[in-house]
Design goal:
Layout: E1 3-8, H1 14-23, E2 31-38, E3 41-48, H2 51-54, H3 57-62, E4 67-73, E5 88-90, E6 96-104, H4 107-116, H5 127-142, H6 150-163, E7 166-174, E8 178-183, E9 192-198, E10 201-207, H7 210-214, E11 219-223, E12 228-233, E13 238-242, H8 253-259, E14 265-266, E15 269-270, H9 271-289, E16 297-300, H10 306-316, E17 319-320, E18 324-326, H11 339-349, E19 350-352, H12 354-357, E20 361-366, H13 373-384, E21 389-394, H14 422-428, E22 433-436, H15 439-449, H16 459-462, H17 472-483, H18 485-504
Parallel strand pairs: 16-17, 16-20, 20-21, 21-22
Antiparallel strand pairs: 1-4, 1-10, 2-3, 2-4, 5-6, 6-7, 7-8, 8-12, 9-10, 9-11, 12-13, 14-15, 18-19
Length: about 500
């Protein structure tokens, strides 16, 4: 999960890109980067850290041009190396920079193909660099002569869709020509277009979430369709084409549960409204499982679960209270690498108001339970604050399976719900009772807001991988690499060495 933005304007875009990335900071706090295009030349600055820390005045001054792309990274594939901060750049053909949100499930295979067949060298372990090189190669193959037109670009994206598997929403600049954006044929990761009318003509901004458009003064136009490619030339003319053979919309359900900002609209569904619906459906289940009078007060775990908790309390006619106060200068614990760091940061991030807990049976509502670290710490904090009983409710179903499409849930043994019953999970997080949302209720919560959304990427809940290429052997390899990174790296280097020798022969 990352945040991406691209813009074609009639005035300098460095500040615009910076402001848009600030609005997408929740999607990635590990690294940030901006690349602009001026007189067919790219200017780029990227580094590890938050957006506000990466860019200084001297960096902003160097980012000249009226078009550009930006990225904030949350690492999944690859590592946290500064070399893997985005955007990435290749100098041929034409010169291309690219920023990517998602995860390619066949990037290792593509990396080998790039070297063996396409004669392209991939210098990092980032699947985004692989995606850029596939795009660059296919644009080169689709081009005749020294010019490049939208038809050739769309032809290249069509071939890219046939080669690449997984989740990807991407923005790319082609030097001196314009901005390209495309979305995978399953529409797993979000991408939308906004416009701004000026005296000099229409400006376009493409971003992961609508909040990034509206926050910088652009008007939401539409979502990029699954499999669609959009090209905006430097004159501000928009071209688009469906480039996939059999596209279908399967937005990631976890975007609505947790990842996206509540004030965003994704594929026609308000994130805030879907979270209210999650609270309604969860209240129905709680009503079935608990007697009236069993619960004294409902409290959210700030911030993602607040809409669900409010609606749940309203539907059950229960008192709603804010029992935890959040320190907003601490990062999101789910995005933090390492179990020990996440565990330590929970108590730095949240503080309980003891008077709201003392002597009460408290229903705590969270958006989801992934590893269980945060949940366990929060239950203990509630008890220490004087709660008589602690009931824990998740607005999402149990997270049982790895997510391979851009969310850091790669191994089953890191997921508290894998291989455990609800009663065992309840004991693990030390709660008195536990309630999970049903998977069909979660999907219905989104469909209630936009009835046109019927299919979802919900693999972490139901184990169904929509791209059709994720096998048990693939998941086993992911887990092995996660637990034995040095061995996996040595195996990859050995395989590359053999490939080099075979090619030289």
């Amino acid at each position: 999960m990352c945040g991406i933005v691209g813009v074609v304007s009639h005035s300098p875009v460095n500040q615009l890109l910076y402001d848009a990335l600030l609005l997408l900071q929740h999607r990635g706090q590990d690294a940030a980067g901006i690349a602009t295009n001026h007189s067919s030349m790219f200017s780029m600055h990227k580094a590890n850290g938050l957006v506000r820390d990466v860019f200084r005045t001297r960096n902003m001054r160097s980012l000249q041009g009226n078009s550009g792309i930006g990225h904030c990274r949350y690492p999944t594939a690859g590592s946290s190396s500064e070399e893997e901060a985005q955007p990435f750049y290749v100098n041929a053909p034409f010169g291309i920079t690219l920023a990517h949100n998602g995860n390619l499930t066949n990037w290792e295979q593509l990396k080998v193909e790039m070297f063996k067949n396409d004669r392209r060298h991939i210098n990092t372990d980032s699947d985004s660099e692989v995606l850029l090189n596939v795009l660059a190669h296919e644009i080169q193959e689709a081009t005749t002569g020294y010019s490049l037109d939208p038809a050739a670009i769309f032809k290249a994206v069509a071939v890219l869709h046939r080669r690449v598997r997984g989740a990807y929403a991407a923005v790319a600049q082609i030097a001196g020509l314009g901005l390209l954006a495309f979305r995978d044929p399953f529409g797993i990761r979000p991408l939308c277009i906004g416009t701004n009318d000026t005296d000099k003509g229409t400006e376009y901004l493409i971003a992961s979430e609508s909040v990034a458009l509206e926050g910088v003064g652009f008007r939401f136009l539409r979502d990029v369709a699954p499999g669609e490619a959009v090209f905006i030339d430097l004159d501000g003319k928009l071209h688009s084409r469906q480039c996939a053979d059999n596209p279908s919309l399967n937005p990631c359900a976890f975007e609505f549960v947790y990842l996206a900002r509540p004030d965003s609209v994704i594929d026609g569904a308000s994130v805030y409204a879907t979270r209210l619906k999650m609270g309604e459906h969860l209240s129905d289940k709680i009503k079935r499982e608990f007697l009236q009078g069993d619960i004294d007060v409902v409290m959210p775990i700030p911030d993602s679960s607040r809409p669900a908790a409010i609606q749940l309390a309203l539907k059950l006619n229960l008192t709603y209270r804010e029992g935890f106060i959040k320190n907003r200068y601490i990062g999101r614990t789910f995005l933090m690498p390492g179990q020990a760091i996440r565990q330590k940061s929970v108590r730095q991030k949240l503080n309980a108001i003891a008077s709201e807990f003392k002597g009460k049976t408290v229903l705590l509502v969270d958006d989801s339970i992934v590893r269980g670290t945060t949940s366990r710490e929060i239950v203990q904090m509630a008890r220490e604050a004087g709660a008589k009983r602690v009931i824990f409710a998740s607005a999402a179903p149990p997270v049982i399976y790895p997510n391979v499409y851009g969310i850091d849930m790669p191994t089953r043994d890191e997921l508290i719900a894998y291989g455990r019953s609800k009663e065992e999970i309840c004991r693990e997080i030390t709660a008195d009772a536990l309630v999970y949302q049903d998977i069909e209720a979660l999907k219905q919560s989104i469909s209630d807001v936009n009835p046109n959304l019927r299919n979802f990427e919900a693999s972490c809940f139901d184990g169904f991988y929509v791209t059709g290429d994720v096998s048990q052997a693939y998941l086993d390899r992911l887990e092995f690499a996660r637990h034995h990174p040095k061995v996996a790296l040595e195996d990859a280097a050995y395989s590359q060495l053999n490939l080099n020798l075979a090619t030289s022969d």
